[in-house]
Amino acid sequence: MNYDAARNGVIALAHMTVAQIMRFLRKLSMTELLKFDAEFEFWAQPGQRPPEGKGWSTWLMMAGRGFGKTRAGAEWVHRLARQRKVRIALVGATIEEARKVMVEGVSGLLAVAEGYGPKPKWEPSLGRLTWRNGSVATLFSGESGDGLRGPEHDFAWCDELAKWSDADNAWTNLQFGLRRGERPRTLVTTTPKSAMPLLQRLMNERRTVVTRGKSGDNWNLPKQFLEVMMETYGGTRIGRQEMDGELIEDVPGSLWPRKLIERCRVGSAALPAMDRVVVGVEGGLRCVRHRRRRARGRTFLCAGGCERRGSEPGSLGGGGERGGARMAGRADRRRGQQWRRHGAERASRQWGRGGKHPPGPRLARQGGAGRAGGAAVRGGPGLVRRRVPGA
Question: Which of 141, 172, 237, 271 is the most buried (most CB within 10 A)?
Fold first, then answer.
């Protein structure tokens, strides 16, 4: 059924009285009623509709929870599999999630196929679906990108891309494998997540079409659920992300927005000779919980500057370790690597309300030359601006 024709049918039904709707339904046979109910395009939201035209290769459906992303993805895959013999990759955050959501879920491929006739053959041990015409869909995991190295596909459905732990590697291998057929395409269904470069990069690609949707757009969701969610999370950062499907790039009030960082980024070849390089270290915040002191982690930054007029200090590298005392040795080693790599001459250290740092000589020994000059300062919740003399 054509989408526009289906949508016009929905609009026509919406303007009918109850008596007119009942007369219309009585004229349909049971087969026609079931087909009418299962016709996804008749009831689909605009954001669930496949893009028109042939100039796109990636369809990014970025929407809130409960919008109907899984149903739209299953409908798209099932329709492509029935048209001709194809090979399809089904990629979830994990194999378990791909099986439970994309295949066996209430809106997954098996449930969708039931409304159109015989189901495809599902082999859980192989992670494989096989249609009667020979089309095959195979499960893959976004936490193991090398599993997509080698297999070839006509199409791919990637679910919850924002949750993939090996996203860049998995996406790259998937794209290299989309080399079957005349026009390979990918559908990505995901609720957005901030600070994910791959998702931001996909949105900016020329051959990507983005469709959006909100949780409230799905009229099948319980009214009480939507009311509770709106009262609890409406207008908040998590509500905008999880319900409205909005990609939030920066924390409100952030001193270092991502756009500013990217605008100031330069290659190593463009850096001037540094007159001074300093490693700054901030110790782990400690708290008392269940009568035990626990350190949150340690962060460090290597910065350099030159005295040439018009030059500004710049960040040369950094990092951090979480986990308290057990991670202290690893943090020290990484900090020492920054020291050696950039030839730092000083170290500034800050105590964070109970956090402890190794003394300067320990850092100097890891650097491999001399003692580390520097100073230390204790920070607290009211610390807004700090200055370390001599650092």
Answer: 141
C-alpha 70/C-alpha 157 separation (Å) is: 10
Note the pLDDT tens digit of each residue in 144-173.
999 999 999 999 999 999 999 999 999 999
Which token pair is 213? 């949707």
pLDDT digits (tens, 9 = 90+) for 235-251: 888 898 999 998 887 66
Please answer whether residues 147 and 140 qualify as being in contact, where contact means their C-beta atoms are separated by less than 8 angstroms.
Answer: yes
Residues 107, 122: Cα–Cα separation, whole Å: 16
Most confident of 15-19, 122-126, 339-343: 122-126
Interior CA angle at 255 toward 288 and 63, to 5°? 90
The set of residues, in sequence order, having a beta carbon less than 8 Å from that of 23 and lying 6+ positions away, is none
- Single out the residue of 197, 221, 211, 220 nearest to residue 245, CA to CA: 211
Backbone angles phi, psi at 201, to 5 degrees: -70, -40
Q: How many whole angstroms separate alpha carbon 92 and alpha carbon 96? A: 8
Phi and psi (nearest 5°) for 362? -65, -45
pLDDT (tens digit per residue) in 298-334: 565 666 665 554 555 555 555 544 444 444 556 566 6
The type of residue at 231 is: E
Which CA distances in Å does 39 have to 34, 237, 311?
Answer: 9, 36, 64
Token pair 């920066």 is at which residue? 250
